[in-house]
Amino acid sequence: MDFQMSPKGQDFLKRVKAFMKEEVYPIEEAYYRELHSLDNRWVVLPIIRELKQKAKAQGLWNMFLPEEEHGGAGLSNADYAVIAEETGRVFFAPELFNCNAPDTGNMEVLVKYGSEEQKKQWLEPLLAGEIRSAFCMTEPDVASSDATNMKATATIEGDEVVLNGRKWWSTGIGHPDCKVLIFMGLTNPEAHRHQQHSMVLVPKDTPGVKVERMLRVFGDYDEPAGHGEVSFTNVRLPKSAIIKGPGKGFEIAQGRLGPGRVHHCMRAIGAAERVLEQLIQRALSREAFGRPLAKLGGNPDIIANARMSIEQARLLTLKTAWLLDTKGILGALSEVSQIKAVVPSMLCTIVDQAIQIHGGGGVSDDFPLASAYGYARSLRLADGPDEVHRALVAKLELNKHRKR
């Protein structure tokens, strides 16, 4: 395994770090203060649009996308992983570089599987950062940890596909620039269980699409993107809105989730680094019983274990990115699930410990730790719960021994 970044990757990382230091960290506190002062937080503040234009002008744009012909940076998964860690240190930073979920995954889907018409209509404005998107897969009425339980339908009727059903935790649906949704639904219940579903591109303003409500995560709406519950009632679209064709939904999902999970995990590692810094600063600056918190009780062990956990998680995630680059998704199935189970849990633990070090302030809005915990805890469910990923890892391990 070679984790050495390419010269091109090193250049991008250096420039991203400079952008974060010069443009992002200085406005972070003011950004949240202004956003939280508004009665309507479902807006894009001018500073965000300004910084997006600056990043774009510097070529720090679409860095997640290896395909240069579509405007990507041409970076490998391993190169971009380190950059994703840096952007993950500030929650809104990935959007500044047009590298935010779920848009990254949706753009990857369109690059790999979209028709020329679909790319023209939706991929180009997404790559330009002119619009945003949402991904509608999880459903409130079934155990969505098993995606074959899906009840929403994408039924073929002549030259049209008709969508019906209800989705929730559709991230990005509340963003004022969200214009297109990717909907996954059941098309042919008689087919093989992994060839029954289709993914469909749905303009948000299509008749029959309704955002029923926005959902809170531990009391936080995550404005301005948010997560919503969306109903689809006899939504009629041309068959050309189906991505790759009927019954290809699971194939597309598998191709989408490998790099996306690396992105999620590396951003989470960046968040863990930031939280550990805050934990240590607090532990060094506060005293109790005549000693700094950093030297009290088991706190030195907490700090040491946090450092070791971050390093272990990073190495495993970089290995996964390297495998995706060298062997593809089929050569990294176990590792992709391993990182998705390991990294959010690691972040969850470190945030919890940072909250404890901060005392009552840790659960308040005076520090970013409560929102960081909500992010970490929900990440243990997003893109599949821990249990599903551990089950796949165990299955692959057992298969090795059965073959012997």
Automatic annotation (TrEMBL):
It comes from the Bacteria. Residues 134-235 form the Acyl-CoA oxidase/dehydrogenase middle domain. It holds the Pfam family Acyl-CoA_dh_1. One of its GO terms (molecular function) is acyl-CoA dehydrogenase activity. Residues 247-395 form the Acyl-CoA dehydrogenase/oxidase C-terminal domain. One of its GO terms (biological process) is fatty acid beta-oxidation using acyl-CoA dehydrogenase. Its cofactor is FAD. InterPro entries: Acyl-CoA_dehydrogenase (IPR050741), Acyl-CoA_Oxase/DH_mid-dom (IPR006091), Acyl-CoA_Oxase/DH_mid-dom_sf (IPR046373), AcylCo_DH-like_C (IPR036250), AcylCo_DH/oxidase_C (IPR009075), AcylCoA_DH/ox_N (IPR013786), AcylCoA_DH/ox_N_sf (IPR037069), AcylCoA_DH/oxidase_NM_dom_sf (IPR009100). Keywords: FAD, Flavoprotein, Oxidoreductase. One of its GO terms (cellular component) is cytoplasm. Residues 10-130 form the Acyl-CoA dehydrogenase/oxidase N-terminal domain. PANTHER family: ACYL-COA DEHYDROGENASE FAMILY MEMBER 11, MEDIUM-CHAIN SPECIFIC ACYL-COA DEHYDROGENASE, MITOCHONDRIAL-RELATED. Homodimer. Belongs to the acyl-CoA dehydrogenase family. This is Acyl-CoA dehydrogenase. It comes from Hydrocarboniclastica marina.
